[in-house]
Amino acid sequence: MLGEKSHLVFPVQSFRDWTDAPVRLMEVWDSIVWLQECHQGLHKYGPLHTNRLYGHVLHPHQGGYMHAFLASTAYQNGTGELILNPKRLRIEGIWGPAHEIGHMNQVTPFKWSGMGEVSNNVSSMYTRYHFGGESFLTLENTYELALEHFVNKGILRAESNDAIYDKLLFIKLVPFWQLELYFERIKGYTDFYADLYEHLRKNPNPATDALCQLNFIKVASDIGKTDLSEFFETVNLLKPGGFNITQQQVDTYKNNFANPSGFMKHRNAAAVYAISATGAEELVENW
Protein backbone atom coordinates (compact mmCIF):
# COMPACT_ATOMS: atom_id res chain seq x y z
CA MET A 1 0.00 0.00 0.00
CA LEU A 2 1.30 3.44 -0.96
CA GLY A 3 0.80 6.68 0.88
CA GLU A 4 2.26 10.11 0.24
CA LYS A 5 5.23 9.47 2.52
CA SER A 6 5.05 5.77 3.34
CA HIS A 7 4.97 2.38 1.63
CA LEU A 8 3.74 -0.74 3.44
CA VAL A 9 4.28 -4.32 2.30
CA PHE A 10 2.44 -7.01 4.27
CA PRO A 11 0.63 -10.21 3.31
CA VAL A 12 -2.71 -9.54 1.65
CA GLN A 13 -4.45 -11.52 4.37
CA SER A 14 -3.00 -9.23 7.03
CA PHE A 15 -4.55 -6.19 5.37
CA ARG A 16 -7.83 -8.09 5.02
CA ASP A 17 -7.77 -9.05 8.68
CA TRP A 18 -6.84 -5.71 10.20
CA THR A 19 -7.29 -2.83 7.76
CA ASP A 20 -10.88 -1.62 7.60
CA ALA A 21 -9.98 1.80 6.21
CA PRO A 22 -6.94 1.61 3.87
CA VAL A 23 -6.82 5.32 3.02
CA ARG A 24 -7.00 6.28 6.67
CA LEU A 25 -4.27 3.77 7.53
CA MET A 26 -1.86 5.38 5.09
CA GLU A 27 -2.78 8.84 6.34
CA VAL A 28 -1.76 7.81 9.84
CA TRP A 29 1.55 6.33 8.65
CA ASP A 30 2.19 9.44 6.55
CA SER A 31 1.50 11.57 9.62
CA ILE A 32 4.14 9.73 11.65
CA VAL A 33 6.74 10.44 8.98
CA TRP A 34 5.55 14.04 8.58
CA LEU A 35 5.67 14.76 12.32
CA GLN A 36 9.24 13.51 12.62
CA GLU A 37 10.28 15.57 9.61
CA CYS A 38 8.79 18.60 11.36
CA HIS A 39 10.45 17.80 14.66
CA GLN A 40 13.86 17.43 13.04
CA GLY A 41 13.61 20.60 10.96
CA LEU A 42 13.26 19.09 7.50
CA HIS A 43 10.09 21.03 6.76
CA LYS A 44 11.68 24.24 7.99
CA TYR A 45 15.08 23.85 6.34
CA GLY A 46 14.79 21.02 3.83
CA PRO A 47 15.50 18.93 2.02
CA LEU A 48 12.50 16.69 2.59
CA HIS A 49 12.82 12.98 1.99
CA THR A 50 12.29 12.25 -1.69
CA ASN A 51 11.49 8.58 -1.14
CA ARG A 52 8.78 6.94 0.93
CA LEU A 53 9.37 5.35 4.31
CA TYR A 54 9.39 1.61 3.58
CA GLY A 55 7.75 -0.61 6.17
CA HIS A 56 7.46 -4.33 5.55
CA VAL A 57 6.72 -7.62 7.23
CA LEU A 58 9.57 -9.63 8.71
CA HIS A 59 10.13 -13.04 7.18
CA PRO A 60 9.16 -15.93 9.47
CA HIS A 61 12.81 -16.95 9.96
CA GLN A 62 13.75 -13.48 11.19
CA GLY A 63 13.61 -12.97 14.92
CA GLY A 64 12.57 -9.99 16.94
CA TYR A 65 9.45 -7.88 17.05
CA MET A 66 10.14 -4.67 15.15
CA HIS A 67 13.35 -3.53 13.49
CA ALA A 68 14.99 -0.67 11.64
CA PHE A 69 17.36 -1.68 8.89
CA LEU A 70 19.54 0.52 6.70
CA ALA A 71 16.76 1.32 4.24
CA SER A 72 13.54 0.09 5.83
CA THR A 73 11.58 -0.65 8.97
CA ALA A 74 10.23 -4.16 9.54
CA TYR A 75 7.55 -5.73 11.71
CA GLN A 76 6.48 -9.21 12.74
CA ASN A 77 3.28 -10.18 10.99
CA GLY A 78 1.56 -10.52 14.35
CA THR A 79 1.91 -6.78 14.92
CA GLY A 80 -0.66 -6.13 12.20
CA GLU A 81 -3.43 -5.99 14.77
CA LEU A 82 -1.80 -2.82 16.13
CA ILE A 83 -0.08 -1.20 13.17
CA LEU A 84 -2.40 -2.08 10.27
CA ASN A 85 -5.57 -0.99 12.03
CA PRO A 86 -5.74 2.83 11.76
CA LYS A 87 -7.72 3.29 14.98
CA ARG A 88 -5.41 1.14 17.08
CA LEU A 89 -2.30 2.52 15.36
CA ARG A 90 -3.23 6.03 16.48
CA ILE A 91 -3.45 4.95 20.13
CA GLU A 92 -1.64 1.90 21.47
CA GLY A 93 0.17 1.03 18.24
CA ILE A 94 1.89 4.34 17.55
CA TRP A 95 5.07 3.84 19.56
CA GLY A 96 6.58 0.93 17.64
CA PRO A 97 6.52 2.49 14.16
CA ALA A 98 7.49 5.91 15.57
CA HIS A 99 10.46 4.32 17.35
CA GLU A 100 11.68 2.47 14.25
CA ILE A 101 11.14 5.45 11.95
CA GLY A 102 13.05 7.47 14.52
CA HIS A 103 16.00 5.15 13.98
CA MET A 104 15.91 5.94 10.27
CA ASN A 105 16.21 9.65 11.05
CA GLN A 106 19.02 9.56 13.62
CA VAL A 107 22.08 11.74 13.10
CA THR A 108 25.60 10.86 14.27
CA PRO A 109 26.18 13.84 16.61
CA PHE A 110 23.06 12.81 18.57
CA LYS A 111 23.91 9.13 18.60
CA TRP A 112 26.97 8.80 20.75
CA SER A 113 27.56 5.55 22.63
CA GLY A 114 24.50 4.60 24.68
CA MET A 115 22.19 6.90 22.70
CA GLY A 116 21.23 4.51 19.90
CA GLU A 117 17.93 3.64 21.59
CA VAL A 118 17.43 7.08 23.11
CA SER A 119 17.71 9.92 20.60
CA ASN A 120 15.20 8.24 18.30
CA ASN A 121 12.76 8.14 21.20
CA VAL A 122 12.76 11.92 21.48
CA SER A 123 11.01 11.87 18.10
CA SER A 124 8.85 8.94 19.24
CA MET A 125 7.69 10.96 22.23
CA TYR A 126 7.00 13.94 19.97
CA THR A 127 4.91 11.74 17.69
CA ARG A 128 2.99 10.12 20.54
CA TYR A 129 2.36 13.51 22.13
CA HIS A 130 0.87 14.95 18.95
CA PHE A 131 -1.33 11.89 18.50
CA GLY A 132 -2.67 12.44 22.01
CA GLY A 133 -1.28 9.31 23.64
CA GLU A 134 -0.19 9.00 27.25
CA SER A 135 3.43 9.78 27.97
CA PHE A 136 5.58 6.70 28.50
CA LEU A 137 7.62 8.68 31.01
CA THR A 138 4.69 8.87 33.41
CA LEU A 139 4.39 5.09 33.38
CA GLU A 140 6.25 2.76 35.75
CA ASN A 141 7.68 5.66 37.80
CA THR A 142 10.18 6.54 35.09
CA TYR A 143 10.74 10.07 36.36
CA GLU A 144 11.33 8.83 39.89
CA LEU A 145 13.74 6.20 38.62
CA ALA A 146 15.62 8.81 36.60
CA LEU A 147 15.85 11.09 39.61
CA GLU A 148 17.15 8.24 41.77
CA HIS A 149 19.55 6.95 39.15
CA PHE A 150 21.23 10.13 38.00
CA VAL A 151 20.64 12.67 40.72
CA ASN A 152 20.50 10.81 44.04
CA LYS A 153 22.99 8.08 43.11
CA GLY A 154 25.07 10.38 40.94
CA ILE A 155 25.64 7.69 38.30
CA LEU A 156 27.21 8.98 35.13
CA ARG A 157 25.32 8.20 31.94
CA ALA A 158 28.41 6.69 30.34
CA GLU A 159 28.73 4.30 33.29
CA SER A 160 25.06 3.39 33.55
CA ASN A 161 24.98 -0.15 32.30
CA ASP A 162 23.42 -1.96 35.25
CA ALA A 163 20.38 -4.19 34.93
CA ILE A 164 17.88 -1.53 35.94
CA TYR A 165 19.25 0.85 33.34
CA ASP A 166 19.19 -1.76 30.59
CA LYS A 167 15.57 -2.64 31.34
CA LEU A 168 14.40 0.95 31.56
CA LEU A 169 15.99 2.78 28.68
CA PHE A 170 13.36 5.46 29.07
CA ILE A 171 15.40 6.71 32.01
CA LYS A 172 17.96 7.94 29.51
CA LEU A 173 15.27 9.80 27.64
CA VAL A 174 14.11 11.99 30.50
CA PRO A 175 16.55 14.94 30.22
CA PHE A 176 16.26 15.13 26.44
CA TRP A 177 12.47 15.13 26.56
CA GLN A 178 12.58 17.77 29.27
CA LEU A 179 14.31 20.04 26.78
CA GLU A 180 11.33 19.60 24.46
CA LEU A 181 8.85 20.35 27.24
CA TYR A 182 10.75 23.35 28.52
CA PHE A 183 11.43 25.13 25.26
CA GLU A 184 8.24 24.23 23.37
CA ARG A 185 5.55 24.15 26.01
CA ILE A 186 6.88 26.71 28.48
CA LYS A 187 9.04 29.05 26.45
CA GLY A 188 7.03 28.75 23.24
CA TYR A 189 10.13 27.91 21.22
CA THR A 190 8.49 25.28 19.02
CA ASP A 191 11.49 24.97 16.69
CA PHE A 192 14.04 24.13 19.38
CA TYR A 193 14.80 20.61 18.17
CA ALA A 194 14.30 21.60 14.53
CA ASP A 195 17.01 24.24 14.87
CA LEU A 196 19.22 21.92 16.92
CA TYR A 197 19.03 19.16 14.32
CA GLU A 198 19.80 21.59 11.53
CA HIS A 199 22.92 22.74 13.37
CA LEU A 200 24.01 19.14 13.90
CA ARG A 201 23.43 18.31 10.23
CA LYS A 202 25.27 21.34 8.91
CA ASN A 203 28.39 21.07 11.05
CA PRO A 204 31.15 18.44 11.13
CA ASN A 205 30.54 15.41 13.31
CA PRO A 206 32.55 15.46 16.56
CA ALA A 207 35.28 12.83 16.52
CA THR A 208 34.54 11.04 19.81
CA ASP A 209 31.62 10.12 22.08
CA ALA A 210 32.84 12.64 24.64
CA LEU A 211 32.91 15.45 22.09
CA CYS A 212 29.48 14.48 20.75
CA GLN A 213 28.03 14.69 24.24
CA LEU A 214 29.72 17.98 25.07
CA ASN A 215 28.83 19.41 21.68
CA PHE A 216 25.16 18.58 22.19
CA ILE A 217 25.19 20.42 25.52
CA LYS A 218 26.81 23.48 23.97
CA VAL A 219 24.51 23.53 20.93
CA ALA A 220 21.37 23.07 23.07
CA SER A 221 22.40 26.02 25.24
CA ASP A 222 23.28 28.19 22.26
CA ILE A 223 20.14 27.32 20.30
CA GLY A 224 17.94 27.89 23.35
CA LYS A 225 19.86 31.01 24.39
CA THR A 226 19.79 29.55 27.86
CA ASP A 227 22.50 28.50 30.27
CA LEU A 228 21.68 24.82 30.70
CA SER A 229 24.89 23.95 32.50
CA GLU A 230 23.28 23.33 35.88
CA PHE A 231 20.60 21.16 34.29
CA PHE A 232 23.16 19.03 32.46
CA GLU A 233 25.26 18.80 35.60
CA THR A 234 22.19 17.58 37.51
CA VAL A 235 21.68 14.70 35.07
CA ASN A 236 25.42 13.98 35.07
CA LEU A 237 26.04 14.80 31.44
CA LEU A 238 28.31 17.73 32.19
CA LYS A 239 30.68 16.10 34.65
CA PRO A 240 34.17 14.63 34.37
CA GLY A 241 34.56 10.87 34.18
CA GLY A 242 32.15 9.50 31.60
CA PHE A 243 33.85 8.89 28.22
CA ASN A 244 37.02 10.17 29.96
CA ILE A 245 35.67 13.71 29.97
CA THR A 246 38.06 15.92 31.91
CA GLN A 247 37.36 18.74 34.35
CA GLN A 248 39.10 21.10 31.93
CA GLN A 249 36.64 20.15 29.17
CA VAL A 250 33.72 20.67 31.54
CA ASP A 251 35.02 24.08 32.57
CA THR A 252 35.59 25.10 28.95
CA TYR A 253 32.03 24.28 27.98
CA LYS A 254 30.56 25.94 31.07
CA ASN A 255 32.49 29.12 30.33
CA ASN A 256 31.26 29.33 26.76
CA PHE A 257 27.49 29.04 27.02
CA ALA A 258 25.72 31.80 25.15
CA ASN A 259 23.36 34.30 26.78
CA PRO A 260 22.81 32.65 30.17
CA SER A 261 19.27 33.31 31.43
CA GLY A 262 18.08 30.37 33.48
CA PHE A 263 17.95 26.64 33.88
CA MET A 264 15.51 23.82 34.43
CA LYS A 265 15.45 20.87 36.74
CA HIS A 266 13.21 17.89 37.21
CA ARG A 267 11.38 17.82 40.53
CA ASN A 268 8.88 14.95 40.74
CA ALA A 269 7.38 11.97 38.99
CA ALA A 270 4.25 13.65 37.70
CA ALA A 271 5.59 16.87 36.28
CA VAL A 272 8.45 18.83 34.83
CA TYR A 273 9.37 22.15 36.41
CA ALA A 274 11.12 24.92 34.61
CA ILE A 275 13.03 27.16 36.99
CA SER A 276 13.64 30.57 35.53
CA ALA A 277 16.42 32.97 36.48
CA THR A 278 14.00 34.77 38.79
CA GLY A 279 13.07 31.57 40.59
CA ALA A 280 9.51 31.41 39.26
CA GLU A 281 8.30 27.85 38.69
CA GLU A 282 6.05 26.84 35.84
CA LEU A 283 4.51 23.41 35.61
CA VAL A 284 4.03 21.09 32.67
CA GLU A 285 1.77 18.28 33.81
CA ASN A 286 1.57 14.66 32.65
CA TRP A 287 4.39 14.78 30.12
- Termini, distance in Å? 34 Å
Report the strand count. Answer: 7
Strand content: 5-15%
Q: Strand count, sense and closure of the main sheet? A: 4 strands, mixed
Count of helix runs: 14
Shape: elongated
Mean pLDDT: 84
The helix content, as a percent range, equals: 40-55%
Along the chain, the helix and strand elements come as: EHHHEEEHHHHHHHHHHHEEE
Determine the structural class based on helices, strands and strand pairing. alpha/beta
Strand order of the largest sheet: 1-2-4-3
Unreliable sequence segments: 258-283
Characterise this structure.
The protein is of the alpha/beta class. Helices cover 47% and strands 11% of the residues. It has helices at 12-18, 22-39, 42-45, 80-83, 86-90, 95-104, 119-130, 142-152, 163-167, 170-186, 192-202, 209-224, 229-234, 247-254, and strands at residues 6-9, 53-57, 66-68, 73-75, 262-268, 271-276, 281-285. A 4-stranded mixed β-sheet has the order 1-2-4-3. Strands 5-6-7 form a 3-stranded antiparallel β-sheet. It starts with 5 loop residues before the first strand and ends with a strand.
Brief sketch in words of this structure:
This protein is α/β, with parallel strands linked by helices and 287 residues long. 47% of the residues lie in helices and 11% in strands. α2 packs across α7 and α8 crosses α10.
